[in-house]
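Structural prep section.
Before we set up the soaks we want a predicted structure of the protein with fructose -6-phosphate in place, mainly to decide which crystallisation condition to try first. Input record follows.
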Amino acid sequence: MCGIVGYIGSEQAVPILLESLKMLEYRGYDSAGVTVFNGSLETYKIAGRIKDLETVIPQNLTGNTGIGHTRWATHGKPETRNAHPHLSSNVSVVHNGIIENYMELKERLSGLGYEFLSDTDTEVIAHLLHFNMNCDGNKCLLDGLAETVKELEGSYAIAALCAEEPEILAFARKDSPLVIGIGEGSNYAASDVTAFLRHTKEVIFINDNEIGLLRPGSIEIFDQGGNRLSRETETIEWDLEAAEKAGYEHFMLKEIHEQPTSIQNTFAGKLSELEGTVTLDELHLEPAEIKRLRRVTIIACGTSWNAGILGKYLFEKLAGLHTDVETASEFRYSNPVLCGEELTIAITQSGETADTLAAVRSSSSYGCRSIAITNVVGSTITREADSVLYTRAGPEIGVAATKTFTAQLIALYMLAINLGRIRGIISANEAKDLIVGIKRLPGQIQKVLGRKDVINDCAMQFADKRDYFFIGRYLNYPVALEGALKLKEISYIHAEGYAAGELKHGPLALITEDTPVVAIATKGHTYEKILSNIKEVKARNATVIAVADDDDTEIEKYVDVVLRVPSSHELLAPVLSSVVLQLLSYYTALAKYCSIDKPRNLAKSVTVE
Ligand code: F6R
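Run finished without errors. Recording the tokens verbatim:
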């Protein structure tokens, strides 16, 4: 995820900015850059690491004011021209977030003669700021920024400099983190406190819709109406190591907690509740082509394959499309029967999984149109597939996929609704219900996260077991698969994910009083069926842990432990249940002192066959 930093004070800015950017490296990034005021604004940026950036900054660059950025590509590839800071004449801007209306603004600013040098959404902020400072008499940087943020839709933490006002650094925030560090004769701005913790622990957290400026010895903060705000400083109690994980013990836990925001980023700017539509222009699929489609083939591995199973049910129900889900490593050596009127969807968070890439090449050789659902801009799959739907979950550092999985689910919901509306399979009202439900998910995930103590207690109760079963039906079947995969991957407990109706065809022989069975039993048309399966395993003395809706008053009668999720649209419940199972795995692995972020034998990106 992008990180911004800013410094103004009595020290040399370059070493402080570079050190701050290094502290933000843990967030993940592909490019970096700085602007320093040295009589004029001098900007250096590069696609690559901070150590590469150090080599392009002149040794003798002096200046006491600067801003810097680590970029994790969301709009435009990881290339130097897309790295921040972005400039417009005498202003320089760094930004973390997504500007949803950037295309509209870009068109307007291009019409006014502004030349765009990057593919980013951020460059519109720089030009808009320059325009607003100059269009109507001369405005100062702060007033220009106040005008600018009024026109931005989306999320942003911005730091900006103007060559004519080197004594100030301006900032603004909405839906992206921004914190100010207060030093002695020096002030700092950053996406998180880690960036300047070496210099100060005294901070002010900037709230949404606040704007302000730093001078070496003072800070001014204003609300949207231009009223000056008086804010208390807080003292950070963390040490540096903890702060790198934003206070969480592991990246996995941090990433689980990021899901309210990460899924919001996945659907930002794409859902119209009013019209019951999902806009996915980036796929460049013509309505006529969508109507002609006969079949979908989903290709993926591991967690992404589990997401694919949910995708199958969604495409069949919402878009009336027969869908197969193929394991990439098998598909590439099989003899698929494919024809032109099919869509191949490759799901891969890394975009680099060798088997998935090879399978997509194979499907393209049959003339199939392909879409990649991936989290990494510029990854290899984005060059192999005909078009790309980015999940925008931010970098995932823990090996076990968590936030990228739920972001994949959101991408699949959006794609299924989009195809289903164009193909006339679902009505605007059905789509509206789903869209309203998707928009409620971030808040509902937050509620699940608030119940982590109950999940932790449950995990500790069964952490010494040798085997676990996860069962679910219909949309809860892929949730069971993913729950089992997560548990075995990080806690090394043998776990099986099963379609609950299949138990009696063999695995029931393994169920004993020593086998916890997790039944995903959220409400839906298979609810009665899963209750029967629960009774089957209870009859073999298994301990049953149910994942059930808040308003389910019946389930307690049949099971030993209930882990609750907020009641939601039947099709959307898998997102919430998955978060419960991620936490269950996490706390089980924690109780067993496992290496959670780097499980044995596993890699984040599987680039070999
Ligand atoms: C499990 C996990 C793996 C990946 C698999 C495919 O937590 O992360 O099972 O899902 O290696 O990786 P991508 O999605 O990068 O193709």
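Observations: The mean pLDDT is 93.
Flagged for discussion at group meeting.
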